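Posting this for the archive.
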Amino acid sequence: MRSIGLSSSSPGDPGVECPPDADDAALVGAVAEGDRNAFAALYDRHVPRVYGMALRIVRREAEAEAVVSDVFLSLWGQPQRFDPSRGPLRTYLIVLARSRALDRLRAGATRADHTEAAATDSGQSHADREKATRPDQQAMQLERSALVRAAVEQLDTKQRTPLELAYFEGLTHAEIADRLDEPLGTIKTRIRTAMSALRGVLRTLGGDRDGMP
């Protein structure tokens, strides 16, 4: 999954190094002061779950990435909207991700309705529209799914398992570490290594790197 840009700090960025166990509420407070390192810490901590929730709803990697961008840009631009007295940040971000993902689904349905109405006005039948669009779309989706499945199957089990837990079940790195009974640092390393290996396998198989999370 591509970063939205603000998650990586450069030497000129404001902020100080954040301890890995820093409290979410404290980090949000630092974000309100413009601390990019605090934002990066929150992004790294919560992005797997946010992405997993979005992907389960929109079913497309590109759309899920757009939801992730919406959620974290909202956190960066309006951190005061998070009220720690109403619950943890994780819940706040998941609820926001669900809302943004559903908005995208509704927007997509509206566009589809407008397209169908325009086609009807032009005299094109529903069967003609299905014949013109669905085979190519289905073929592309099937080809892409087959490539991803083949690529994932070629990963080592130690790489594949945490990757699937992060990006398809929406678990955080800490939750994956607990479930697999492995050190947190080991899990992070395996996920990074798995993503790199998966991109390489997809290139070998003819897949499109841009579609990877």
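The helical segments are 24-32, 36-58, 61-77, 89-121, 126-153, 157-167, 173-180, 184-205. The CA atoms of residues 175 and 181 lie 10 Å apart.
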